[in-house]
Design a protein that fits this description.
flat, two-stranded parallel sheet, single chain, little secondary structure
Amino acid sequence: MTGTFPPGVQAGIAKITGTDGPAATNQEAPGAAGGGAQGQEAVSYTAQTGLIKYAPMMTPPGTKITAKVAKARYPTSSVPIAKTFLPTPKQTTTMTASLTNVPASSRPFQAPAASMPQDDMQKFLHRWRD
């Protein structure tokens, strides 16, 4: 390719001193990295007030089943049954911390490819198969 840049572009190129780019910015959600919940996620879900409630990141499943008997993860709580109409809830949504761990490898989830037809009649029938 041949050609030249206009003088304004050449002057701009001459002023460039480095190509490092801007400083890095942390784009992770609050409380998502490592050392436990931070910010709103550190407050118990039932103790939060306001239009948005924040829930901690879901615990990833284990790789092996070691328990012989299932036991409750959290203790049961008494829930009073409403005897009258309850007020309209003020909460509009629940925000959950993003999943930050990525598995190193996993099995392929797509089905194996169907066998390809070999002769012309199979190709014709294969085309019209539902």
